[in-house]
Write a structure and sequence with these properties.
The chain is of the alpha/beta class and 326 residues long. The protein contains 14 helices and 10 strands. Strand 1 and strand 2 form a beta hairpin.
Length: 326
């Protein structure tokens, strides 16, 4: 059993309540998600949300992503017992994102920035004693990027994305549940990006075909997220090396891990080709299941055959719609 950690799991910024769980670094690192889908704690307690920080540490290293682009694999590869603990999709940040509008309307116990700073302080408690913390939030948190990546709030970040057409394929491959999640995410992020609401309305109109409409929304979601990435990188003066592409992770995981370690201000540790090879053979979101590239490739081929023309039209629509913003 490792060192006991009181970990901030949930935040209700409106009711002023928090769920704090008792856990340790090993449980936190091994969980694929820290959003409640897995029980990574021994005990949990509901407490008043007290925004006074309980740690001098702060989480300042982040892996942001568009979704379905290998960020969970990258987080697992970055995790190094005794050196780095990677926190994958902590729910407390997603809770803040989910209540963003209520917080902005003054219905929470504090404005957005103090809530974020408190969450970063609590997540930072996992580190210390020479152990660095890397946070890989859910992409639901991307709506918070303007505040989360305000210069001076976090020190290091990398941004994982993929080519837009491949992103369309990945979202459609996930079926109705994934498409519905992404459509909700697009609605949440659109108001944060200049022209986003108008583009969202345009994406949902002018076509009776539900697949055509959904492909437009997925293309728009990719653009919205990359626009937020571009803005965060520019405002902080981060180098282009903070951008990581899905295909690069698959082709050269060891090299990408070293690139990410450098950009996140982590010690560049010796490559472990055997560990990378083992992780590449397992589903990163369900390590108990094998990853079968041939089956994955056939699914991608089917999606392209079925929806390729629809994707073409969606990408053409997006290019034209973005051009009208200028």
């Amino acid at each position: 059993m490792g060192e006991e950690i009181a970990f901030l799991h949930r935040m209700d910024s409106v009711e002023g309540e928090a769920i704090v769980v008792s856990t340790d670094r090993s449980r936190l690192a091994s969980a694929s998600f820290l959003d409640g889908r897995e029980t990574f704690w021994r005990e949990q307690a509901l407490r008043p949300l007290d925004l006074r920080p309980t740690s001098a540490e702060k989480a300042t290293r982040f892996v942001f992503h568009v979704g379905f682009a290998g960020s969970t694999l990258l987080a697992r590869l970055l995790d190094w017992p005794g050196q780095v603990t990677a926190l994958k999709e902590p729910q407390c940040l997603a809770d803040i994102a989910g209540q963003r509008e209520l917080i902005a309307a003054g219905k929470a116990i504090a404005p957005l920035e103090p809530l974020l700073d408190y969450a970063l302080s609590e997540l930072g408690k996992v580190g210390g004693n020479g152990i660095s913390v890397v946070v890989k939030p859910t992409n639901w948190v991307n709506s918070l990027l303007p505040e989360l990546c305000a210069p001076g709030r976090i020190e290091h970040a990398v941004f994982v994305s993929m080519k837009r057409r491949r992103y369309l394929g990945a979202t459609f491959r996930g079926g109705n549940d994934r498409l519905a999640f992404c459509a909700r995410l697009a609605s949440q992020i659109a108001p944060v990006v200049r022209g986003g609401n108008a583009l969202m309305q345009s994406a949902m109109g002018n076509t009776p075909d539900p697949f055509e409409r959904m492909a437009r929304i997925m293309a728009l979601l990719h653009w919205l997220q990359e626009t937020l990435f571009d803005d965060a990188i520019a405002r902080n003066g981060w180098p282009d090396a903070v951008r990581i592409d899905f295909e690069s992770i698959v082709a050269n995981p060891e090299g990408i891990v070293q690139q990410a370690q450098e950009q996140l201000g982590l010690p560049v540790l010796p490559p472990e080709p055997e560990r990378a090879a083992i992780l590449m053979k397992r589903h990163t979101k369900d390590p108990s299941s094998p990853f079968q590239p041939a089956i994955h490739a056939r699914a991608d081929e089917f999606i392209e055959e079925r929806y390729g023309a629809c994707f073409d039209r969606a990408l053409e629509w997006l290019d034209a719609a973005i051009g009208q913003l200028d």
